[in-house]
Design brief:
Blueprint lengths: L1 H22 L2 E4 L1 H7 L1 H38 L5 H55 L3 E4 L15 H7 L4
Parallel strand pairs: 1-2
């Protein structure tokens, strides 16, 4: 019976050590919060904002031009001839098509630019997280961003160490 207790105790101890060592292999970080604090992310957002503003300005100018021409057309429709009315309707249709094309192009170009600017930022953050995690001996790092799949994050938070790695205050 003593041997069985020793065996049971040894098994329990081994299992406990296994759980403790596994718990030390896991850490977490709020990756979204980290990226938002990176200067490169702020610079990328500023560039995207300028690009959005430029598209918005072009859009507003085209809409104003469309409204002005539409108003003129409505005011002079009765007195202008059929040929003039058809030309003005075609001009309004062409302008409307250009507005729609601008919307499509703006969305596409903004998406491409966002991917181009943010890809290196995300890679830098990922590399820093991996470097810190490896240096601290963690095998797994979970993203604790809201909706990132973690319900509870009691393990070590790598945020301060990764921020130090990236020279973020």
């Amino acid at each position: 019976m003593k041997t069985f207790r020793k065996l049971l105790f040894t098994a329990f101890l081994a299992l406990s050590v296994s759980f403790v060592s596994q718990a030390q292999e896991v850490a977490h970080i709020n990756a979204q919060e980290l990226v938002a604090q990176m200067p490169e992310f702020k610079t990328a957002n500023e560039q995207l904002s300028k690009m959005r503003d430029s598209f918005a300005k072009d859009y507003e100018q085209m809409i104003t031009e469309f409204q002005t021409k539409a108003t003129k057309f409505q005011q002079e429709e009765q007195t202008a001839g059929d040929t003039t009315n058809q030309m003005r309707m075609q001009e309004l249709q062409d302008l409307q098509n250009r507005v729609q094309q601008l919307e499509l192009n703006a969305d596409t170009e903004l998406g491409k630019k966002q991917e181009e600017l943010l890809k290196p930022v995300l890679e830098k953050a990922t590399n820093a997280i991996q470097k810190v995690a490896r240096a601290k001996g963690y095998k797994y790092v979970f993203d604790s961003t809201m909706g990132g799949g973690i319900i509870m994050a009691d393990g070590p938070d790598l945020m301060n160490d990764v921020k130090k790695e990236l020279n973020i205050n």
